[in-house]
């Protein structure tokens, strides 16, 4: 059977419906609700939403060790901003539109210390507003948290539908310690489901571990 074809106008309208529509509280994602309404496969609609989120990839870095940009940095804020950049660049092969943040915790309250894009910072803000989400869990428990597909995720229903509305479908939260700050979590957000392979997750864990050691050894100062 020949698959149906859809006009660009129809696709754009469907994406707008996802972005503007708050589903029934029992539905994890607006995409599921809109897909049912339009008689579409949810994965197809999610692909259209993902395609509409197109932040420009950051420029390629010069050849060398991935941590070259982090060595001898004496300011914590500068260090963390550079770290989000190198981790994001390392994940481009996984998904060219990956976005990263670093979230820290003070008395259990989270705050974003650095972000590769403003839209990534917005996803952190959603977690702060709802009081739930994978990054909060990763930072507070200092354990790895993986969400392969937010539309089928049973936890954090308030966060899930808002994340999908922002074009985020899969994400990881990787805990680490920031010298002089305390418990933190590096989060990576992607518009595709199951974007993060075991190799990609291991890469992020190795880089955050290395970053923690560099922070301790160089003892950068807080801004």
The order of strands across the largest sheet is 2-1-5-4-3
Quantity of strands, as a count = 5
Main beta sheet? 5 strands, antiparallel
Number of domains: 2
Quick recap:
This protein has helices at residues 8-20, 30-38, 42-52, 76-90, 118-130, 134-141, 157-165, 198-218; strands spanning 99-106, 109-115, 145-147, 170-178, 182-190. By secondary structure, it is an alpha+beta fold.
Break the fold down into its secondary structure elements and pairings:
Layout: H1 8-20, H2 30-38, H3 42-52, H4 76-90, E1 99-106, E2 109-115, H5 118-130, H6 134-141, E3 145-147, H7 157-165, E4 170-178, E5 182-190, H8 198-218
Antiparallel strand pairs: 1-2, 1-5, 3-4, 4-5
Question: Which keywords apply here?
Answer:
alpha+beta, 223 residues, five-stranded antiparallel β-sheet, Beta-Lactamase, 8 helices
Protein architecture, described:
By secondary structure, this protein is of the alpha+beta class. The protein has two domains: 8-52, no CATH class; 66-218, Beta-Lactamase. It has eight helices and five strands, in the order H-H-H-H-E-E-H-H-E-H-E-E-H. A five-stranded antiparallel sheet has the order 2-1-5-4-3, with helices on both faces. The radius of gyration is 18 Å and the shape is elongated. Mean pLDDT is 80; it is low at 22-28 and 54-63.
């Amino acid at each position: 059977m020949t698959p149906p074809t859809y006009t660009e106008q129809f696709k754009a309208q469907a994406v707008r419906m996802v972005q503007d529509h708050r589903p029934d509280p029992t539905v994890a994602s607006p995409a599921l609700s809109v897909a049912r309404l339009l008689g579409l496969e949810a994965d197809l609609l999610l692909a259209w939403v993902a395609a509409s989120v197109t932040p420009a990839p950051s420029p390629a870095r010069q050849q060398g060790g991935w941590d070259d940009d982090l060595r001898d940095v004496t300011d914590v804020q500068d260090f963390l901003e550079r770290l989000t950049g190198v981790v994001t660049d390392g994940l481009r092969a996984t998904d060219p539109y990956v976005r990263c943040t670093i979230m820290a915790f003070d008395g259990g309250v989270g705050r974003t210390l650095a972000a590769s894009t403003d839209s990534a910072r917005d996803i952190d803000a959603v977690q702060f507003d709802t009081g739930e989400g994978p990054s909060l869990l990763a930072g507070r428990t200092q354990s790895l948290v993986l969400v392969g597909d937010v539309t089928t995720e049973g936890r954090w229903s308030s966060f899930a539908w808002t994340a999908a509305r922002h074009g985020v479908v899969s994400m990881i939260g990787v805990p680490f310690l920031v010298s002089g700050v305390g418990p933190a979590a590096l989060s990576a957000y992607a518009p595709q489901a199951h974007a993060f392979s075991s190799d990609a997750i291991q890469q992020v864990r190795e880089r955050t571990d290395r970053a923690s050691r560099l922070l301790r050894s160089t003892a950068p100062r807080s801004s």
